[in-house]
Amino acid sequence: MTHTEHVDVLIVGAGISGIGAAYYLQQEHPGRNFAILEARGATGGTWDLFRYPGIRSDSDLHTFGYEFKPWRDEHAIATADKILAYLRETVTENGIDRNIRFHHKVLGAAWSSADAGWVVDVERTDERGEDVELVQISANWLFCAGGYYRYDQGYAPSFEGQERFTGQIVHPQHWPEDLDYTGKKVVVIGSGATAVTLIPSMAPTAGHVTMLQRSPSYVLPVPAKDSFANAAKRLLGDRRGYALTRRKNIIKQRAVYTLCQKYPTAARRLIRKVNASQLPQGYAVDEHFAPQYNPWDQRLCAVPDGDLFKVISNGSASVVTDRIATFTERGILLESGRELDADIIVTATGLNVQLFGGMTLTVDGQPVNLPEAVAYKGIMLSGVPNFAFAFGYTNSSWTLKVGLLCEHFCRLLKYMDDNGFDSVRPVFDDPGIATLPLLDFAAGYVQRAADQMPRQGTSGPWVMSMNYTYDADMLRNGPVVDPALRFGSRRAARNSAQTPQLVV
């Protein structure tokens, strides 16, 4: 294993979070050097990885985009190619690309208090994923920006009899480039954001597309274009129009979430009314679009201009709510006895949660057990020095939280510089504070991994907030210092050790 370089900050992941972290770091701390390690061969993260038909955002780009870079396209709900172009333009405009190391997968990181730094083990490969070389990079800080799911493997439950099926089974996370579904019968298993994106995209070309769901999800039509945003841009210019639209949409997102949480019955009725207005007369709305849980206990699925409802209405797609008994040679046999014929089955069954890219962490030789750690301000972990991570909102646009976290991170670095500190760690030592799962979210992918993730506290900086207004006040405007933080300095420690002690 060879040691290749030292950086002040090592950012892991060149997706939307890592690019944002790099921008804020070089704006606020131009004297610090940094590198971005990306396991894959391209920037963009999710938006470069997924290649299934119709992939798009489920948040408006005026809040999903960066605060510092206006979204100029007329579509507020945008396809992956537009989002990817936006991200790569951000990289190029700000010279971030010179700091990216592709095909660098982080395996583990070891913190040394004596050195006040990390030594990071990295697997480096060529463009084909071959010629593996193990290298080490040292860093004062680690900033994990790799998202929350496993990139190399989606969640694919085992279905009874699936080996009997003579057609093709595809997972959206591993979509074949040459998949031809023209005129074919397609069954999409799932009813989440991926399924409601795939179906209207495939329906015009396929023979017929069926969405097979065990239970319904909340689906809400939204305008693909934001008329307010486009008018504001024309009248005020890109930057001011974007800023105004961003503020408007932040308030709107919070209002919708609050309505759903405080008045779930009213919200349920409103969503049902909207759905019924988009579907054919007499359609079984309550069977296929009335979940048992309350709105926003799981994420609402947004469909731009009601495209899912349009393909259901014109007959090119349909919804079946039932349970799978077994796969057959020709398709899927349901518990009701009905059989769905299929040439292609798409398992839109979700993702596997994996924090920090699956890397291992040790502090002074002791392994960090993530389920025993508690998140501090949603950006650090108890007991782990000089370690930050980016985790966005589950009830709003991901990037809104990431931007605030990056700002706070830069403020923390400045405080440490001004006061001569080179290390800081949160300490969770209040026995009066109970802990909860990191995410209060009922989605299956979260529940499957709850016992593998860090915890959150019930008060103070240990709460994993999902409220932009609260976070803006705490992370952007609140103090950096906190009783839970322990700052340290190698210089002070050395001076203390060298100073003769007065014995009395």
From TrEMBL:
GO molecular function, one term: NADP binding
Superkingdom of source: Bacteria
Pfam family, one: NAD_binding_8
Family: Belongs to the FAD-binding monooxygenase family.
Origin species: Mycobacterium dioxanotrophicus
Cofactor: FAD
Record keyword ATP-binding present: no
InterPro entries listed in its UniProt record: FAD-binding_MO, FAD/NAD-bd_sf, Flavin_mOase-like
UniProt KW Oxidoreductase keyword: yes
Protein name (record): FAD-containing monooxygenase EthA
Keyword list, A-Z: FAD, Flavoprotein, Monooxygenase, NADP, Oxidoreductase
Segments forming a coiled coil: none
